Amino acid sequence: AVTCEDFVRCLESANHADLRQFRLWYSQAGTPEVSIESNFDAGRGELELTITQNCPPTPGQPRKAPMHIPLALGLLGQDGAELPVCLDGESPRGEANTTRLLELRQARETFRLTRLPGPPVISVLRGFSAPVKLKIERTPEELAFLLAHDPDTFTRWDAGQQLASLAILERLGAAAERSAGPLLTAAYTRLATAGEWADLSYLALLLSLPSEDSVGALQSVLRPVAVFQAREALRDELARSLQHHWQSLYHRHHRDEFNRFDSKAIGRRRLKNVCLDYLNLLDQPESHELVLKQFRSSRTMTDRVAALSAMINSHHPLKDDCLEDFYRQWREDDLVVNKWFGLQATCRLPGALERVENLMTHPAFDPGMPNHVRSLIGGFSQSNPPNFHAEDGGGYRFLADQVIRLNGINPQIAARLLTALTSWRRYDERQQKPMHAALTRVAETPDISRDVFEVASKALAD
């Protein structure tokens, strides 16, 4: 069999390169953290970049050697145009050299970029050139600038995600100023009115907010319900501020595309369903009618599921009828029934736990079917933060009950479900106590399986 080492040797041979240090990616655990500090000398037209790398200790590897990290970098002028990237001591290579691959091999390195007409905006990690955690100080204005002008699809998208995360954190009171929200609204307005896009799937990504998990990763103490509420408030603001733009984009790209699976048709579906999701937040008769019309008239599963998901997460008067219609049509298709369970398990409105408990008695639900368990119980515990992490602790008690129940049916699935509680120390004190209690109850259950006990005991001991 061909190994990773064989693959790297082929790369070395084809490119006449020494990749011995690069092999550390296969032997060292953990994700490297790369920090960048910049200093621009206006008199000399030079930008000095000091780049450090660090890989935190992991079990069995307390000290890590510096990695070989490819860091693709570009520079943008104040007008948004790309600038040539020229290292100190090099002769200019022409305007085409606008992305430069810097190869980091030491724990700390300095690069000096020359012949710059003014202070540039740095576009770094282009093309997601390395799977690292990047730390670079950015203002909301710089992020909005990159979202508007960066030609690299990854760094442009990432700038938008960072700007949106800042806007959410502002609403949590975790940011000193409140400038990211207005900048994000203005940026989304420009994106929505920019004319024709060659890749509508990419535009749909640019207009989508980061997940609660992504924002939570920026917090030292997890507050999932608060993050959800702040994110929903931002979504609601964007829905109302850009209502006419969402409507225009939706109607421009909505069409019957049964059996169309090309990239353009996929892009149209993705974009229009992002717009539908924003319009659904208005919870008005007009948006209810639009969602219902798509659900009833669409001949593609993507559009029907998108419309049904929108209904479930709103106060649509016919959502229960549509859920029942959908089930009756697809009850013989187990994959679609799994989706039907998952949509209801991840409903963000209050009362989701009660709905999940009721669905567990539904004739279609079989606790012996792993996919049913993952869709319903796993969907609720891992993808429904406002309800699973409700302050009354009901979500944690429910999960403990189901893990104990499944222990005798499928201990591997039960153990996997329990991982939703294993990071309990990262939450605030009000949530730590009921999460700890649920883990303890599972660990102390008589005849608990080794798989489940290992997860529970390790979480309690760490």
Q: Globular, elongated, flat, extended or rod-shaped: what is the shape?
A: globular
Q: What's the multimeric state?
A: single chain
CATH homologous superfamily classification of the domain at 331-462: Peptidase M1, alanyl aminopeptidase, C-terminal domain
What's the helix count?
Answer: 21
For the report, how would you describe the main beta sheet? 4 strands, mixed
Stated plainly, the CATH topology of the domain at 331-462 is called Zincin-like fold
Side by side, the strands of the main sheet go: 6-2-1-8
Mean pLDDT: 94
Fraction of residues in helix: 40-55%
What is the C-level CATH assignment of the domain at 331-462? Answer: Mainly Alpha
Task: Describe the fold and architecture.
Among the domains are: 31-137, Immunoglobulin-like, CATH 2.60.40; 331-462, Peptidase M1, alanyl aminopeptidase, C-terminal domain (Zincin-like fold, Alpha Horseshoe), CATH 1.25.50. The model has no long low-confidence stretch (mean pLDDT 94). It is globular and about 75 Å long. The chain is built from 21 helices and eight strands. The chain is an alpha+beta fold and 462 residues long.
